[in-house]
């Protein structure tokens, strides 16, 4: 636990939001809210600086971050479990949405790739896909588990060519960045002119207060994690961040966990939907791609079934429909 002296010292340094806004209102004991863009900023997070893993045994995002994720009730399991369970759930969902706006061939980069499952699915769909992770141990895990090219360290330190990527994905990464505008500007510099950033991050339902969220037990409250989450963006705040970074065209979609997350693409160019026929034609050309298409078909059927179930539940809650039944 951080000492009160350390917390107050960090609060005194939090004078301005990433957007330049200086009107910071108290949100709770650990966060302030920018009144200009409705971003929550952690006041007691580590100072912005070098995010490299200096000691894989003890650093915040070292190997124990992934090995001990069973310890918290809101975690999805450790890296061994998630390398299996993420594939048919979030990884497949993300790929399905990505292929609606960007088709292979092309170069794809996933920053904060973890076990590498999503990077692997992009590779199987036909992208030249590469991952980046901070922990050398987890880099090795991704390389072994999915036979992927994965590199260790911050994206700014990788030997990557400017304007060389069609897709850059940051799934549950944006909230961890100590200097989000600087990192996102760098990512945009790596994109081709029509490339897309592909992001999932917590959704702060701004400008609601902590008391208002607590009164309704809002799911977003689970993201108030001052040890890890340095910035928590509203939808408008995320849009402003992308525009400031040079990816001014932003499209939000329903998130997999929409009660607390947001999910969107951003690009320097207009984002145009891909025709389903073009996607299916591409995915039908090789055995691995046909397997991806079959998985996506199953994912589509599952989502349709979930939607139908929700509609039935809503109907049962409607007194008129219930009485008629």
Strands, count: 11
Judging by the overall fold, what is the CATH architecture of the largest domain? 3-Layer(aba) Sandwich
Round the mean pLDDT to the nearest integer and report it: 89
How widely separated are the two ends? Answer: 56 Å
Provide a descriptive summary of the structure in words.
The protein is α/β, with parallel strands linked by helices and 325 residues long. The protein folds into two domains: 4-274, Vaccinia Virus protein VP39 (Rossmann fold); 290-324. Helices cover 39% and strands 18% of the residues. The chain is built from twelve helices and eleven strands. The strands form two sheets. The protein has a seven-stranded mixed β-sheet with strand order 6-5-4-7-8-11-10, with helices on both faces. Strand 2 and strand 3 form a beta hairpin.
Short précis:
This protein has 325 residues and is α/β, with parallel strands linked by helices. It has 12 helices and 11 strands. The strands form 2 sheets. It has a 7-stranded mixed β-sheet, sandwiched between helices. Strands 1-2-3-9 form a 4-stranded antiparallel β-sheet.
Provide the fold topology.
Elements: H1 4-13, E1 24-26, E2 31-34, E3 39-42, H2 63-67, H3 79-85, H4 87-98, E4 107-111, H5 117-125, E5 128-133, H6 136-146, E6 150-152, E7 165-171, H7 180-190, E8 191-202, H8 210-215, E9 231-233, H9 235-245, E10 249-253, E11 261-267, H10 276-283, H11 287-317, H12 319-324
Parallel strand pairs: 4-5, 4-7, 5-6, 7-8
Antiparallel strand pairs: 1-2, 2-3, 3-9, 8-11, 10-11
